[in-house]
Each structure stands twice: as C-alpha cells, then as structure tokens.
C-alpha cells in the first residue's frame, strides 16, 4: 500500500511539472493558434537564472521572481523580434520560427550560463515529509501548488478579464477581433509574455527536484506538449489534467511494470485518447464553418 | 662577394627555413570537443594543448618541437573517420590520440592497421582492445573493471545480494550489461534490476521496488550525468540505509554538489585524481596526479576531470614511446608503446603486453567514500 502511495506521489510531482509547462503552451495557443516550441527554453531560462543568482548569493525569495521576470522579458523579445516581424505569415511559418528560436536560445544559454548541470536547495528545505509510509519532498508541494495556482489564474484571466477575453477573441478570428476594437498586437504580446513567465516559473519551482542544464528544454517541451495534446489544446483544465495523467502513468508503469516502458505507456494512452477524442480530454470540438 | 659566399649564404638560409619543418614531430588528435560528448572531448583537448605547449617550452622531444594537429569530430563516427584519414594522409602525423567516444574510436580503428600508425583511444568500452588490434591502444579503464571493483568491495563487507538501478543512456546501459556479466564470477547475486531514462527526474518508484525486494543488501547505480544525482537524492528521500554505490561515471566534485547531503556515505570506484593530497608519499601515482592538477589549474583555472586524465596518460605514453623509438617510423613507436612497463599515469599504472593494449589492472581504481562533502579513500 505504501508502495502505491509512493508511486502516486512520484507521479503527481512529475505530472505537476508537465502541467505547468503545458499551461504555458495553452496560453500562446489561445492567442495565436501557434504551438510555441520554444516553451521548454523558457523553463530552462527560469531554472538557470535562478540557479546562477542563488549561486551568486542572492536569496531565493529575490532570485525566484527575478528569474520569472527574466523569462518574461525573453518571451516579449521573442514576440517582438521574431513573431511580429513575420506579420500575417501562415501558422506553419510561425511554428517553424519558434523552433528556430528554441535552437537559438539553447545556443545563447550555453554562452550566457554554461554547460553544467545546476540545482539549488528546495524552498522549504530538502528533508522529506512522511505520509503514511511514503515520503514526499516539500518542494513537490511547491510544484503542485504552483501548477494549481497558475491554472486558477489562467482560468480566471482568460474567462473573466477584458485582456484575457481579448486574447481568446484574437485566437478565434484575428481580423474580427481587430474590427470590434481589440488591440490584437497587444493581446499577442501579452500572451507571449505570460506564457514565458509561466514557463520560467515552472523552471524555478522544478529545478530543485529535476535539476536543469541548457539542453533539457527540448525534452521538457515534448512532455509538456504531450500533456497539452492529451488534455485538449487551448484548455487550461486540460493542460492540468493531461500533465498529471502523464506523470501518473509514467510513475505507475515504472513502478509496476518496468521503467523501460514508461514513455511507451504514456504515448499509447495519448494515441488512444486522440483516436477516440481527437480534441483531447477537455478540448472544445473544432468546427470548421465553410 | 664571391660565388662561394653566396652559395654558403643561400644554403644557410635554406637550412634556417627548412630546419624547423623537418625537425617537427606531428601528433594527430580527433576529439569530441563540441556536441553531446563535449564533457569528454573538451577537457581532453585542453589537456593535450596544455601538454604540447609545456613540452615545447622544455625543448620538445630530444630538441624537436612537437606539433599537435587537433580536429573536433563532435563525437560523430563518420567525421572521426574522415579526420583520422586526413591526419594520416595529409597531415602525415606519426601517431593519433583520440576518439572520445567508443563509436568514434571503432569507426577509425581499422584505418590504423592499414596505414600502420599507432593510435591511443580515450574511450571506455572493452571492445576497443578485446580482441586486440595491433595498432590500437587505450588509456581509460573499462566499465567491466568498475563492476568488478564495486563487487569486490561489496563482498569485502560480507554482502552478496545486490540491487541495480541503471541509466538507459550509453554509459549506464553498457555498464549494466558488464555488471550482470561479471556478477556471478565476483560472487554476488543481482536480485533486482531496475532502469531509468537519462533525463528522468524522479526515480522513487524504481527505488521503492528495489527496497521491497527480499534480501537486497546493497544497491549499485551505473549511470552518467544528472541521473545518478537524482537517484542519490531519491535514495535519501526514501530513507534507504543499505550501502549505496555509484560508478566512475560520476566521479567528480560536481556530483557531490548536485546530490548534496544525500551523497554522504556513497561509495564509488575512481582514479586517484580525486584525492591528490590523500595519496601515500610512496604512491607512484602521487607525483603525476599532483603535477597534472597543478598544471591544469594554472592553465585553465579549474580542476581537471577524470576524462582529461585519460588524455594526459595517452600523451605521456606516446611521447615516452617516441623518445625510445625516434619519430621516423610509426611502427617502431607502436612497438615502443607495447613495450612500456610500469608507467605511472594519473589513471593508473600502465604495463602493456602484446595481449593487453590497455595495460591497467584493478589497482587503477580506488574505492572512495563521500564523507563531509569530500572524498575519502576506503582502506582495503
């Protein structure tokens, strides 16, 4: 029984990280329909910046917000320098631009930081908490709490605020949104800034558990993207559920079958879901009106 | 000015211009200076460049300057083979050091027999020297030896039942196979065999399974990079108390930094490079180890790695052979390498024979334990 509990704790911890990354994907997709493949790089920028600051003696309480701001700024620069100049280019072009940006950012991080693996201590120490025969790291609670907070914020922001609804309208039909007076440029800018910030936050929270180095972004993005697809593209609830589900499948497969099959198990579930519900678990059915 | 004087002047000039070019010994190297194996190739390249500079500042080999022709193959076997061909045919080197990875090494190995040029590989796998190829040598110990060393320490503690948790990356997968292979002969029984992906961030499920296995007495973690540090942290998180062994793949201060307090009590096989000040006064490796660390720190302002040590040994073995055999005939250099006996390097003490082109035995590894955030040799 304590075994199962340990597997579940492991799955929720890892799943919450995937979910936080998936939430970043969701926001940019909601604004532009673009799948931002540089999302993993924002996670790394957050983690690396925090690690560098903490190593330089800056207290965590300052380093963490600075790292999130740094990620946000890079997100704004990505939009201003790479996405906006492309103008009304087709979606595929924009997606390819984000792939290019991710390669560029990876190279830049090698130069700005280094090629070493980094970590720093958990926010509330590293002494594990005992729960019914299993153990959990306090940092895992931070990660889970962070993901839920980001989810709640996004759900509120996209549905209840003017700026958030502007982002959704921009995604739905940019020209129509502009016609009814929404500043679509600002909506796009905001979505890149926010999702980069969310990515950096995920990195800041996860690094004490997962470690970080300049090249882990690709893998992070892949897992986060899988979570997004499973949950339903564009739905914050889907991102949260998809991330947790993938984390749990991986942990349970590693625990009960073999860790060799854990990625395979996750992808089989994703394929099955997409066969039966192409829009994902919580995605809205996409209707093309002709 | 007479005709003779002009002639004398011209020939003097010719000598001046020609002399350095003739009296230069060219050594080739192709390493993974960039790319995914840069953690190997980067310190290796730095070490070779440092050593060549140092050697030439001290008058080269018997008064002849040594030139290092270094290419970056990025760990790509195809490129490595191309560069090896270029080194032999165009640069006309007398010997080649390199192949940071086993893949690159095996891709170029056949060339050296064809051209009869000696080659010292810096890669780990046992296939490089087993079966022995006439012109191919290597300086790193094999992962098979690491397994034997770990198992010897486990049995010395009176334990026999071992649980393994291995990374599925190249290093971990290869060492896992070797460990499974030598376990029987070493007198231990592998009762649990778990794996994890190289980029996984939580291995508590696998460790929970090992802890739940009947009779398991010690745990071994072959792996490279961040994985072993995560496993070590998870091990402490679960409160496991069995003796825990890491591999030589993570034998660096970096590992202690990443794993933090969780690393206390972890044992691993490593080269003496990690314990320069704790080596006995009469230890033959004390001098080379301290020399290398001092020189590397002076040149680059950082500590050398185990991998740089492989290059250090390869270079010294090669220059020693060139001193013995002269630089004209590569085949004679090969014979001189094979004749080396009792050469104390930083990795171990090398004694080559026609049947053994690695020249190391188990004494090259020292079992170290992590205590108070530092390395302590385990008395044996």
What can you see in these coordinates?
The complex is a heterodimer of chains A (290) and B (380). Chain A has one domain (15-223). Chain A has a two-stranded antiparallel ribbon. In chain A, a hairpin with a 2-residue loop joins strand 1 (129-131) and strand 2. In chain A, 73% of the residues lie in helices and 2% in strands. In chain A, helix 9 packs parallel to helix 11. Chain A is mainly α and 290 residues long. Chain B has 380 residues and is α/β, with parallel strands linked by helices. Chain B has two domains: 3-142 and 287-364, Rossmann fold (3-Layer(aba) Sandwich), CATH 3.40.50.2300; 143-274 and 365-377, Response regulator (Rossmann fold), CATH 3.40.50.2300. Chain B is built from twelve helices and 14 strands. In chain B, the strands form four sheets. In chain B, strands 2-1-3-4-5 form a five-stranded parallel beta sheet, with helices on both faces. Chain B has a four-stranded parallel beta sheet with strand order 7-6-8-9, sandwiched between helices. In chain B, helix 6 links the parallel strand 6 and strand 7 (189-196). Chain A: GO terms for molecular function: transmembrane transporter activity.
Distance between the termini of chain B: 79 Å
Shape of chain B: elongated
Structural class of chain A: mainly alpha
Task: State mean pLDDT of chain B (0 to 100 scale).
Answer: 89
User: What is the count of β-strands of chain B?
Assistant: 14
Count of helix runs of chain B: 12
Which two protein chains have the largest interface (Cβ within 8 Å of the partner's Cβ), and how many residues from each?
A: A-B, 33 and 32 residues
Low-confidence stretches of chain B: 14-22
Which percent bin holds the helix content of chain A? over 70%
Name of the CATH first level of the largest domain in chain B: Alpha Beta
Strand content of chain B: 15-25%
Q: Which CATH-level-2 architecture of the largest domain in chain B? A: 3-Layer(aba) Sandwich
In the CATH scheme, what's the topology name of the largest domain in chain B? Rossmann fold
Profile the largest sheet of chain B.
Answer: 5 strands, parallel
What Rg of chain B, in angstroms, do the CA atoms define?
A: 23 Å
The largest pleated sheet of chain A is described as: 2 strands, antiparallel
Q: Indicate the multimeric state.
A: heterodimer
Mean pLDDT of chain A: 89
Global structural class of chain B: alpha/beta
Family (chain B): Belongs to the leucine-binding protein family.
Keywords (chain B): Amino-acid transport, Signal, Transport
Signal peptide (chain B): 1-23
Domain Leucine-binding protein (chain B): 24-371
């Amino acid at each position: 029984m304590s075994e199962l509990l340990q597997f579940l704790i492991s799955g929720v911890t890892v799943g919450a990280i995937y979910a936080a990354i998936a939430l970043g994907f969701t926001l940019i997709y909601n604004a532009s329909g673009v799948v931002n493949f540089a999302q993993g790089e924002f996670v790394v920028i957050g983690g690396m910046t925090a690690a560098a600051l903490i190593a330089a003696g800056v207290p965590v309480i300052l380093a963490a917000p600075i790292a999130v701001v740094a990620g946000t700024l890079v997100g704004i620069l990505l939009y201003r320098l790479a996405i906006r100049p492309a103008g009304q280019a087709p979606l595929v072009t924009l997606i390819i631009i984000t792939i290019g940006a991710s390669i560029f950012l990876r190279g830049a991080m090698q130069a700005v930081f280094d090629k070493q693996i980094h970590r720093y201590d958990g926010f509330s120490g590293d002494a594990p908490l005992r729960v019914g025969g299993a153990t959990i790291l306090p940092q895992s609670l931070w990660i889970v709490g962070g993901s839920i907070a980001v989810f709640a914020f996004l759900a509120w922001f996209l549905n209840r605020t003017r700026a958030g609804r502007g982002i959704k309208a921009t995604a739905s039909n940019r020209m129509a949104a502009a016609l009814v007076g929404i500043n679509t440029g600002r909506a796009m800018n905001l979505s890149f800034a926010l999702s980069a910030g969310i990515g950096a936050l995920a990195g800041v929270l996860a690094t004490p558990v997962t470690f970080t180095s300049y090249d882990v972004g690709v893998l992070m993005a892949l897992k986060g993207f899988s979570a997004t697809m499973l949950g339903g593209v564009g739905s914050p609830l889907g991102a949260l559920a998809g991330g947790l589900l993938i984390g749990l499948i991986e942990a349970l497969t590693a625990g009960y079958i073999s860790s060799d099959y854990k990625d395979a198990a996750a992808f089989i579930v994703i394929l099955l879901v997409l066969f039966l519900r192409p829009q994902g678990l919580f995605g809205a059915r996409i209707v093309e009106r002709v | 000015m007479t005709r003779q004087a002009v002639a004398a002047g011209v020939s003097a000039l010719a000598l001046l211009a020609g002399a350095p070019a003739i009296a230069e010994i060219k050594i080739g190297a192709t390493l993974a200076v960039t790319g995914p194996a840069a953690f190997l190739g980067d310190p290796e390249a730095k070490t070779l460049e440092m050593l060549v500079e140092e050697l030439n500042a001290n008058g080269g080999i018997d008064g002849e300057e040594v030139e290092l022709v270094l290419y970056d193959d990025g760990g790509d076997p195809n490129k490595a083979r191309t560069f090896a061909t270029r080194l032999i045919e165009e640069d006309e080197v007398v010997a080649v050091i390199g192949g940071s990875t086993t893949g690159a090494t095996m891709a170029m190995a056949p060339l050296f027999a064809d051209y009869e040029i000696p080659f010292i590989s810096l890669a780990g796998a046992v296939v490089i020297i087993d079966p022995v190829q006439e012109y191919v040598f290597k300086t790193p110990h094999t992962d098979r030896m690491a397994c034997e060393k770990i198992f010897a320490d486990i049995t010395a503690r009176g334990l026999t039942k071992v649980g393994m948790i291995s990374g599925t990356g190249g290093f971990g997968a290869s060492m896992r196979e070797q460990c499974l292979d030598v376990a029987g002969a070493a007198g231990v029984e592998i009762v649990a065999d778990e794996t994890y992906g190289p980029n996984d961030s939580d291995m508590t499920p696998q460790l929970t399974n090992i802890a739940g296995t009947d009779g398991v007495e010690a745990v071994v973690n072959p792996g490279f990079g961040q994985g072993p540090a995560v496993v070590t942290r998870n091990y402490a998180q679960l409160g496991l108390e069995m003796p825990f062994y890491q591999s030589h793949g993570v034998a660096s201060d970096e590992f202690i930094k990443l794993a933090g307090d969780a690393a206390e009590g972890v044992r691993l096989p490593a080269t003496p490079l990690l314990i320069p000040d704790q080596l006995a006064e009469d230890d033959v490796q004390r001098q080379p180890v301290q020399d290398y660390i001092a020189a590397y720190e002076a040149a680059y302002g950082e500590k050398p790695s185990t991998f740089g040590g492989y290059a250090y040994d390869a270079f010294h073995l090669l220059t020693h052979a060139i001193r013995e055999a002269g630089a004209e005939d590569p085949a004679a250099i090969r014979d001189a390498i094979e004749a080396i006996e009792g050469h104390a390097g930083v990795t171990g003490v090398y004694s080559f024979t026609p049947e053994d082109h690695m020249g190391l035995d188990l004494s090259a590894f020292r079992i170290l334990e992590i205590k108070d955030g530092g390395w302590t040799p385990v008395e044996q």
